[in-house]
Write a structure and sequence with these properties.
Layout lengths: L2 E14 L2 E14 L3 E5 L6 H9 L6 E10 L2 E2 L5 H10 L1 E4 L3 H4 L6 H12 L4 H14 L5 H4 L9 H13 L5 E5 L7 H18 L2 E6 L2 H4 L5 E6 L2 E7 H6 L4 H8 L48 E4 L2 E3 L15 H13 L4 H5 L2
Parallel strand pairs: 3-8, 3-9, 6-7, 7-8
Antiparallel strand pairs: 1-2, 1-4, 4-5, 9-10, 10-12, 11-12
Length: about 350
């Protein structure tokens, strides 16, 4: 299967008053047409920087220090600003975390959708209006002809996010990047937005990169998951592999801190704080927060160890000479519960 996008050894840093900050360090992943890849990790892990590098919208103090971003056979890092504008207009769209800040507060939402449509193709304003109303209907905005004439403040947070998705779809993209699109929404609306994105992906054969700090959010939508920490991917695999056979201690920590329907209200916090990326640590960056850390974790960075053809993790615990470590009880308990109830799918694992 051909990759629609392939990121190879991407390195991104920022000039700051405190010195050079190394946000993304030798990052690689790929995505096929019609698939959803979730990139998961704590704030500051480099997830959003990765998405902005793909879109070509990094801040002026950013520097891409190496790597490639191959999209439909073309390295985006070799394109000039005009060429990248065309890519953003025709091929790749992005849904941001805060819909209110993404919308012009003094422009009617219908006109904002029409602007995106007219950027893609030359057509009459009347045709663009009808297309915008159709998109509003498609993303679930009630009374779209009436809503067309309203301003952003007249909509709820969930409806504004639907409008942002309509704008993103106006260019009929091949790749949709969703950067924490449900963070500011309550759980019920969050589920509706996730269901909408999943439906649109199926209907349009979209490829989706979904960025979040919450593994539970992506359980029902991801085909593949990349767990990111300190600017690097530390584990990747299919949704079922990550939820049912996690192998990196950081993935264990994320799962243990995720609530499910069987939890008693107590969640395990991840001890410590992420490293200062002005001075990235030697060895495994997660080692100071990892109670399973070995001596070598503080001395040498672990390579990826393959668990299956689609699953790998960068942890010395997978080395043949490493001591045996049992997976945390909170995770094995969930897996056992799922086997007992004979549920299928990792969304059931989280309680979705």
């Amino acid at each position: 299967m051909d990759h629609i996008i392939e990121v190879k050894n991407l390195k991104v840093s920022f000039r700051t008053n405190g010195g050079r900050l190394y946000a993304v360090r030798d990052l690689s992943f790929s995505l096929e047409q019609g698939e959803t890849l979730a990139i998961v990790g704590e704030s500051g892990s480099g997830k959003s920087v990765t998405s902005r590098a793909i879109m070509g919208i990094l801040s002026p103090n950013a520097s891409i220090d190496g790597g490639q971003i191959i999209f439909e056979g073309e390295d985006l890092l070799q394109l000039n600003q005009s060429q990248m504008c065309k890519i953003r207009r025709d091929k790749i769209s992005m849904v941001f975390q805060d819909p209110l800040s993404s919308l012009n507060p003094i422009m009617k939402v219908g006109k904002q959708i029409c602007e995106a449509i007219l950027l893609k193709s030359k057509q009459s304003k009347k045709a663009a209006r009808e297309r915008a109303i159709k998109l509003m209907t498609e993303v679930g905005i009630p009374n779209p002809r009436e809503a067309f004439e309203k301003y952003p403040f007249q909509f709820s947070g969930g409806q504004r996010q639907r409008i942002i998705i309509a704008i993103a779809l106006a260019s009929e993209p091949d790749l949709l990047i969703c950067d924490e699109p449900t963070t500011a929404l309550d759980v019920t609306i969050q589920a509706q937005i996730l269901e909408l994105i999943e439906r649109l992906k199926r209907e349009r054969n979209l490829s989706v990169i979904f960025i979040t700090h919450d593994l539970g959010v992506v359980a029902s939508v991801a085909d593949k998951i990349a767990v990111m920490y300190a600017g690097k991917i530390v584990e990747y695999g299919t949704c079922d592999e990550i939820f049912y056979h996690p192998c990196h201690p950081y993935t264990w920590a994320l799962l243990s801190s995720t609530p499910d329907l069987e939890s008693d209200g107590r969640l395990e916090a991840i001890p410590g704080i992420p490293p200062d990326m002005h001075n990235p640590p030697v060895g495994d960056a997660f080692a100071p927060r990892n109670k399973y850390a070995l001596k070598i974790d503080f001395e040498q960075e672990p390579p990826f160890f393959n668990i299956s053809p689609t699953h790998a993790a960068a942890t010395w615990l997978l080395h043949p000479n490493a001591p045996a470590v049992e997976i945390p009880h909170s995770i094995t308990k969930r897996i056992k519960k799922m086997k007992e109830t004979n549920h299928d799918g990792c969304s059931k694992y989280i309680g979705g």
